[in-house]
Specification:
This protein has about 280 residues and is of the alpha/beta class. It has a domain of about 180 residues: NAD(P)-binding Rossmann-like Domain (Rossmann fold, 3-Layer(aba) Sandwich). The protein contains twelve helices and eleven strands. The chain has a seven-stranded parallel β-sheet with strand order 3-2-1-4-5-6-9, with helices on both faces. Strands 7-11 form a two-stranded parallel ribbon. Strands 8-10 form a two-stranded antiparallel sheet. α1 crosses α7 and α9 packs antiparallel against α10. The longest helix has 15 residues.
């Protein structure tokens, strides 16, 4: 089986590509920046350069001889990108598309509508698919590191609401297993971490790992927006973040599933373990 990985230079895609390599296969990579991909994978992958914002013949060339696809796209126009890939995949005879989606498709929160459009595009193509609807990533907590290191505090508009963040390694493991087994087909998998925690809970877990106290300060949506614009700029991404944080506060995204266990046969990694792995970022 030959797999093509989109988004291979990012947090999840790189783990998927490395996992496929470790499993003894030679994946193909579709990337805008081949130098970044070469730094990550050396000569252990087949490299294809292109941009899904402006798909051209490079996409068809990358899909030649491919059996399975790991599809990771981002942004409010990801539905257009997913349609370009899935339509080209049908023409190329691809047997399976594994799309990294989001749990928020179920609630319409945040980036959920973006991924719903992407899922619809893949379904419409007729290529067999698996949608991996993941909860928020534990690695998102790295954005708290500056205020924790410098002020000993986490500020958030999520209140006491909870979310079951998932370890990036678990997302990758589910994706790799699904790519290699081609199962389940034409289904959506909902995967989360082992328990729903509040941001205050997670700050306390990090505090225990680094050996010092971390305060928690609840802020308003307006304050959260101003802070997010400061590092991400205005636009749909920040609007989506505020919507997600509001949904957390209101208890709308506290879902916990056994999806990881079902696919890879073990419990998902705890936030405490993630915090231990990343303690240096908060010290």
């Amino acid at each position: 089986m030959r797999n093509l990985v989109f988004g291979a230079t990012g947090n999840i895609g790189s783990r998927v590509a490395h996992g496929l390599i470790d499993a003894g296969s030679r994946p193909a990579i579709f990337a805008r920046d081949p130098s970044r991909a070469r730094d990550l994978f050396g000569d252990r992958v087949d490299m294809h350069t292109g941009d899904l914002e402006t798909p051209d013949s490079s996409l068809a060339a990358a899909l030649d001889g491919v059996d399975g696809i790991f599809l990771l796209t981002d942004g409010p126009n990801l539905g257009v990108q997913d349609r370009a890939v899935s339509d080209a995949a049908l023409t190329a005879g691809v047997q399976h598309i594994v799309k990294l989606s989001t749990l928020d498709v179920l609630t319409g929160v945040g980036t959920g509508p973006w991924h719903a459009a992407g899922e619809a595009a893949v379904r419409a193509s007729g290529v067999p698919f698996t949608f991996i609807r993941a909860a928020g990533f534990m690695s998102n907590a790295l954005s708290w590191s500056y205020s924790i290191r410098n002020e000993g505090i986490l500020r958030s508009s999520t209140g006491e609401g909870k979310i079951a963040f998932i370890h990036p390694n678990d997302i990758a493991a589910v994706a790799i297993t699904t790519l290699l087994t081609r199962e389940p087909r034409d289904q959506a998998l909902v995967i989360t971490g082992p328990e729903a925690l509040s941001y205050r809970d997670m700050a306390a877990i990090i505090a225990r790992r680094i050996g010092r106290s971390i305060g928690f300060e609840e802020i308003s949506d307006e304050q959260a927006y101003a802070r997010a614009v400061g590092w991400a700029g205005e636009g749909p991404y920040v609007d989506a973040l505020i919507d997600i944080w509001r949904a957390v506060r209101e208890g709308r995204v506290a879902t916990v599933t056994d999806g990881v266990q079902q696919v890879i046969g073990r419990e998902p990694i705890s936030f405490a373990q993630w915090a231990a792995e990343n303690a240096a970022s908060f010290q």
